[in-house]
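Thread: Dephospho-CoA kinase, structure

OP (GT): Posting the sequence first so everyone is looking at the same thing. Length is 198 residues per the record. Can we get the structure tokens written out before standup tomorrow? I want them in the notebook alongside the other entries.
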Amino acid sequence: MGMILGLTGGIATGKSTVVSVFKSLNFPIVDADVIAREIVEVGTPALEKIVAVFGLEVLNQDGSLNRKKLGSIVFSDEKKRKMLNEVLSPFLRDEILSQIDQKKNESSLVVVDIPLLFEGGYDQFVDKVAVVYVPEATQLVRLMKRDNLTQDEAQRRINSQLSIEEKKQKADIVFDNQKSIQETEKIVQKWVSKNIFE
């Protein structure tokens, strides 16, 4: 039985940088974003539920989910964002837990990459939580640049999550991502070698 490490951060704090280090060390990753995309593919019960709640306008012509359209609806309306989370949560949770279960026998460390780890109550399913941290001001600048958003749009997306400072407080491990990618990689590798996961 290995360690189940929950990995989270805020939007644009650099979580994918940290995940890629774990991948390069061949640890299995349970990726909530990938799962979230898979559970809403054409013909899935989750997509049918989304359509039942938000209407056909959130679909592309081929029947697949129009993420941009759905995103613009839920990011501008707190109530609708909560509705979407309520629709998707059970499907997401089932698949995440089933993948954790499957992978924990394959490795001494399984990394569970969940952006909304605390918000979704997933901290109860992992042994330790690591947060990828940058201050909110850095987060805002990175997000505007990365997704080509106005300051207002970026701020709304950041505000839709638990603040990065709160996540940092709740974390067992903090991976500071304020310097270069190389620095962050070193921090993660050092943590792994200190915990000697074979």
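GT: Both are above now. Quick notes for whoever picks this up: The first strand starts at residue 3 and ends at 9. The radius of gyration is 17 Å.
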